[in-house]
């Protein structure tokens, strides 16, 4: 007997559009007609999803209990405080812009939490693997051809053979590589047999390293190492053996490349890039106004503006407006530090709760990891990604617009609120 529409809506149609929205998020405004660049596929799917949710609420009501937790209290409170900050914001247009981004992204997180019982993890991780493969392929196409997608700003920076794929700049692409690599590792350590998915995951994990290096994103170098370290420390002993086995295979592969010069000088070029980037970490020359000095000035001026506003925050989106006043010293108006951006824009109270919320998520994920749950390995990969996020988030300039960051938190809340025991969904 066919299910009634209100059940099919919640169990079939809504999950489908959640998957489509999640998939489209990894390709951003590239999936749009250039003359209507603001109307890309992600926003279209998200619009349909919101409509279906409204219909679901009308037909099935709202389960209030699913919102009675610390995460929903904090996220709704954050959005509310952001609206309140309009009262003292200097630029209402910038405040509205950031308010829209903040509210929409928070709603997406709440959707993953609310409909977690109807979303299947294996579909989500297959989407992550597929998008990762596509990004890797496009990244190598950019390096080989020195051409880029129409949304990339690489030509404006006069960079050559630097990957950015579906992102605006190489820093954002590097952040994506680091934050979602732990989910790719799950395919390698979990599946015992050498399946197609395992081979693909192993290949793209290996190929992601040269791309990450060529982005010259120093913060993400550190985030990459941190993600691997946390992931290795948290996985089970049997998974550690699998992890080390394939790490050894990769090591031998690199030795062969170097020994027989099969890389055509590619590895030596990468070595030079790494050396240059690491040496630049200690370059604080004020005469040339290096990147480190500019970052220092951004922090100093950002905190000074926060002090002027009595630590209540300068208002949603208004950090850029105030930084314009000192642009002659900083060059950049973006704070280039997500945590500093939250602190300066929304104030000390929101920032404190934001940090508490992240640790709360990690605490809950550790509980999932230690339980008899099908999502224990995804919980480990999410913790590793959140650990890297603390460093990688200082690389990109506009984290509030980066859907990949918000979806990381959406995945975390999905895992926390959707306990799936051994009798639940299949792993593969």
From TrEMBL:
Key word Transmembrane helix present: yes
Location of the O-antigen ligase-related domain: 204-355
InterPro entries with a match to the protein in the record: O-antigen_ligase-rel_domated, WaaL-like
Segments passing through the bilayer: 12-33, 39-59, 71-89, 95-115, 127-144, 173-189, 196-213, 219-236, 243-262, 298-317, 338-363, 375-392, 404-420
Membrane topology: Multi-pass membrane protein
The entry's keywords: Membrane, Transmembrane, Transmembrane helix
Protein name: O-antigen ligase-related domain-containing protein
Lineage of origin: Bacteria, Bacillati, Bacillota, Bacillota incertae sedis, Caldicellulosiruptorales
